[in-house]
Predict the structure.
Amino acid sequence: MVMTVLGEVAPEQLGVTLPHEHVFIDLVREYRGDGLLNDPVLAVQELTAFVEAGGRTLVDCTNVGLGRDPRALAEVARATGLNVVMGSGFYRDPYLPEELDRLPVEALADLIVRDIEEGVDATGVRAGIIGEVGADRAWLSAREERSFRAAARAHHRTGLTITTHAARWPVGLPQLDLLAEEGVDPRRVVVGHCDMVPDPGYHLAVAARGAWVQLDTVQGESEYDVGRRVAWLRNLAEHDRLGQVLLSQDVCLRSNLRALGGSGYTYVVTGFADVLREAGFDDADLRTLLVDNPRRALTGD
């Protein structure tokens, strides 16, 4: 079973799934007004478009320090009929709270486990994935290392998948190294933002470790960006790694929303799916990418 903000859902009910998005988030310290998603009416409008395009499930990777709003997520899920899986754990520098310096790693793991088993604060809304936990740069800071170790220990206690933030640099590999030190099976780790690292060798290296290769900034902003992602996906498929790939858009800014000129939450299942068909991927491939792989990533199947 997969835990959503409205309760458990059977894996076969997940359907078309976006494994890395944000519905409510506060990135104001980096992006000012563009980095604040806090409008429930707009969220319902944007996510209804995804449902109408065939979407059934969305993983919201907003966690501690990012403006997570469990009650609002539950309201949006009720209004749209969407399965919404909420994240837990600690994000990355400079968003990490003071607890990362003050508490032992095991106590930090306790906080994550509480989100998963009891719910966030007094809301009763439970997390269904650990993450996104990340590194701000090309290395893990000491605080980020503690965050990853806490995530690993919470994973062992709850069985939930870990999803990471590894943007711009190939830091997903050291993240996997650290999690391996904690005994985490890489098949239960989603390495995020792989398509922000323009190196197909890196993508294959992550896959060779057994982890999920997440191409999650598929937003269709330019023909060049779309073409690069198709080429990276084809390369992974040619190396028999299509069964380890996840696709998403990482909507996290107001400018990403359809109402404000972006592609919203629908591009992967509409525009990009059509591009993939034109590139030779068939319906079975698309089902693998949009339905089967996210289900397996969430459940450990």
